[in-house]
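Extended Data, panel c. Modelled sequence:
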Amino acid sequence: MNYEDYRRNYTQGGLHRDMLSDCPLTQFDRWQQQALAAELADPTAASLATLEPDGRLWQRIVLLKSVSGGGFVFFTNYDSAKGQALAADPRASMLFPWTDLERQVIVSGSVEKVSDQESADYFSSRPRESQLGAWTSQQSQPIDSREALMSRFEAAKEQFADQDVPRPPHWGGFRLMPTRIEFWQGGEHRLHDRFVYHLEGGHWVITRLQP
């Protein structure tokens, strides 16, 4: 089958201005809750795009952990490729692809680190194996083999045996503070519904866009 031969129509329903909250974070929460209720695979997953220090654009999947403090929170190794990219240029965009619901949300703005306490609180809630993984992986750095990685994991298990695993100093959260959020709902005949929220003078302005 040729790629261009694959197509489908979008029929799950339209999106109208009177269906939207005046606050995009409230609207996002509504859609996120519906994605959770629909039992989508990885409903909190988003593609995070950054500008790398060498000028390349790059994307990777991150998991949203909260919408709080006016922004979208995710956690990572600060020494990773995305951590270094965001340290050099804090501008970022997140895309939530809820394709089973024929929806997507695109968020853009700039990031800031969350507080040490917020990072510590979330780290302490993670499964122990995930905590050990944060000590194991020098994220984005080369390694010779899977066996070498697992050897590092076993060393971390031994290092922290019979004690709580502390949060690594290089691990914590970012909060993406949005200045633009677009809500996209698939429509018949490729006539999709798109509404974008722009932050202007401290207030959100909503505009319908052509598909």
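Strands lie at 45-51, 57-63, 66-68, 71-77, 91-98, 103-113, 171-185, 193-200, 203-209. This feature is highlighted in the accompanying rendering.
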